[in-house]
Amino acid sequence: MAGQNQPYERLATSDNNMPINPPNYDDLNADDTFSQGQSRNTSHVPIEEFEIDDDETFEPLQREGFLVRASLITKKFAYNFNSSVIRPVTKIIDPIYEGYKYFQLQYERSILKLGNPLVVKRLLYVFFVMCFIFIITKYNVSDGVNGASGGAFLSGKFYDINKLSESLKDFIDPRTMKLNLEYLSSMPHIAGSKGDLALSKFIEGHMMNNGINVIDFNELQSFTNYPVFEPKENYVKLSDNSYEATLFERKNHDMEYLAYNPNSLKMNDEIESFYIYANYGTQEDYRKLKDSHIKLNGAIFLVKYGGSIPEPNKIQIAQQHGAKAVVFVTPKYDINGVSYDDVIIKENMGLTRMSPGDVLTPGWPAQDGFVARLPWSKSPITPKIPCIPISWKDASEFIKKLGSNGVKFDDDLYSGTKSDEHKLKIRIKNEERPMHQIWNIVGSIPGREQSEKGVIIGASRDSTCYGTLSSGTGSTVLLEIVKVFTSLQRRYNWSPARTIYFVSFDATEYNLAGSEEWIENKKEELKQQGYAYIDLSDAVSGDELKISSNPFFHSIIKDALAKVDKPDEKESKEHISLFDYYRNINNGNDAIPNNMIEQKNYVPFINTVNIPSMEIKFTGGKYPKNSCYDDFTNFEKSRIDPSMFKHKQLVELLSRIILTLAEEPIIPYNFNDFGLKLGEYVNDLEKFVNDRIATLTQPNIPQIHYEGLRRAIDNLKAAGKSFHEWVENWKKFVAESAEIEPSLLAMNRWNWNDNMLIFNSKFLIQDVQPKRSGYTNILFGPAFDAPPADDHKYEWNTFPAIRDYILQNDWGRAQHEMNLMANLISDSAQMFIQQN
Q1: Is 221 helix (H, G, I), strand (E, B) or coil?
Q2: How far is residue 618's CA from residue 616's CA, in Å, rounded to a whole number?
Q3: Beta bridge mates, 577
Q4: What class has domain 229-428?
């Protein structure tokens, strides 16, 4: 066999048949196995040995290729999927399909019994679609936040305002607000400074982090000035050098602690002259001095802050009486039960009542510096004499030197008289920046329906020092409102019907430069698009709820007040709403005044573009605004809002109002309230005129006629009644139409919204050069000599031109303006109705 492969052959046996049973091994002897060299097998079959072919070479098995293995895996997966998925599903579907075929057969037989199958099927299809739409609109929309379709336009959709409003509280966090307020108060931020820029970036970042995608970092150019610490260049002292005022607060020489007035005139030379104490520096105070034959020309006047006229007006009056300079006297302040007499208040000296904004570009925008700027001496709103503030501690030393000479005022202080013994030396050196950067931060949530129209929420950001109460509280509320509305967007996939703007205004303490310049750059756009402004300056400074508003908004403010709870600090079982609280502190009266006459950012919105405005805040006693004592430490010590509950209430209240303003299908102007309030304002004007006439000594008593103005207001009331009847009919129609608004009706509704803004613009005078360039609204706005804040005596924010002429005793022009106003109101009312 060597060298050859033998084929396999069956071994020969004695029995060619296979055994029936298997062999039995039980009788084998384990000790006798092959011991004798022979097998126990009875067949005695010889064993044939195999031979190994040494010539063959051993080769290891090779692994199959990738494609072969992939094919095997695929087949295995297909087999498993078929057995575990396809076959079980088929067993389930087959009976269902058989049932479907059975019912389809029955359905076709039924259709044949009814008539033409094609017609019957179409009717059934229409019926099914109608049922589907009914179910969606009846149960899904009405019970949810999303509302129904408003018009046949993609953007037309109404939302449930009440349900959105109830979600607002979920997003308000007092702890976060306190942290924000602390950070906003952590650094001085005079307009245009590094601290101001840092806070503007912080607010921009907050908007971005909360999902505001449309942000405008609006950089403008405006005049600014800053104090410098140079004792040899800045001083107020007695001419004999026996006493010198301390021109900084809290023993600190940093810029923010130094005494100065924004928009004040700097001096190159020293002024030395006799000084007179002029009380509050009003015309009445100077009249008393003149009646006592006290020489005024060439004097340095010591004038107290406060009183019945704004501080910039005092500079103008002092100029008229020949003053060389004015030293403003800061009153003492009680802070946390401690009286401080070293406080120095730094007030703006730009003539806001003539024109807010950049003092070198009164009445026109100053963006990017590419405009003509007036020299200081030519601008009608710059002070032409120097001024500086000092503390009560220093002022009392100067006044004490005057003795008991001159006029005795109501505060038991004497004016003094011209004397060579009582002289002051003054020198004021400020650093001026005629074109310096300021920054407004403007974020917005675009509207889904009428995105070109918007409600604006604005807060001042800058301060002459830390500004915790003056600007910090308002900015804190603004940031929280941003968070609330972006959270609503994320939770409900919601966007407002009209755009919401969030604006952080710079340079408020520099004659409202930030807001006024922003408005002047967008004047025509805002006239056509802005329909509401909410101001957030010094939002929380006490316990008393104070509201001022255009009459258009009185009803929605009261509705929102009634829905916000006022936490009871005494933990009694009785809980009241903010509306009840507001009425209680006003002796049961829920009337809302319209006296927005302070130096705040609502001034240009009302007087330049006539956008109806409101201000809601918690106020209290006086605090050292524009002083470095207005800081976070004193805020906490005074316990004005230790738990931030007032901030929380204010955020909820304002958010409800904003939601109503932005989401109501029809802009929620209440023309009924507007007409009623105008009638009250005419009565107030008549009282103002009669009080003024009573002071006259002339024999001929002037006569003013109000009949035409009252008839015009009656016409406006009739127009407002027609408008609100249309609104009620619109609501009824939409409610009866399963909340679906036809396209033509939606367009009519939009026209009403357009006409409301046109109505506002009708009261802006078109003179090329108005007497007061920043005051073109002849219906609302303060008279030039109106008090700096609401004195609760008159409705100062109404009929400004008429009141100006009455204060000037120009009765003929006052009657002429009244007649023009009557015609304008009648024409505006007629236009408002006829446009629709």
Answers
A1: strand
A2: 7
A3: 565
A4: alpha beta
Partners of 439 in the beta sheet? 219
CA distance 126 to 614: 51
Contacts of 344 (CB under 8 A, 6+ apart): 247, 248, 249, 259, 330, 389, 390, 391, 627
Q: Which two tokens stand for residue 664?
A: 């109501």
As a whole-number percent, the residues of the chain with pLDDT over 70 amount to 88
Where, residue-wise, is CATH 3.40.630.10 in the chain? 163-226+431-664
Chain centre distance of CA 135: 39
Q: Is the pLDDT confidence value at 651 over 70?
A: yes
**What's the CA gap between 593 and 547, in Å, rounded?**
7
Task: Give the integer Cα–Cα distance in Å for 745 and 323.
Answer: 65
pLDDT of residue 154: 35
| Sequence ranges of the chain with CATH classification 3.50.30.30 | 229-428
Q: Please state which CATH class domain 668-836 belongs to.
A: mainly alpha
DSSP state of 32: G
On whether the CB atoms of residues 458 and 442 are closer than 8 A, the answer is: no
Contact predicate 688/695, CB 8 Å: no
218-247: per-residue pLDDT in tens?
999 999 999 999 999 999 999 999 999 999
Q: What is the pLDDT of residues 661-709, one digit of tens each?
A: 999 999 999 999 999 999 999 999 999 999 999 999 888 899 999 999 9
Question: Residue 621: which residues within 8 A CB-CB, separation 6 or more?
Answer: 334, 542
For the chain, residues classed under CATH 1.20.930.40 are 668-836
pTM above 0.85, yes or no: no
CATH topology of domain 163-226+431-664: Aminopeptidase (3.40.630)
Contact 158, 147 (CB under 8 A): yes
- 438 bridge partner residues: 220
Mean pLDDT of the chain: 89
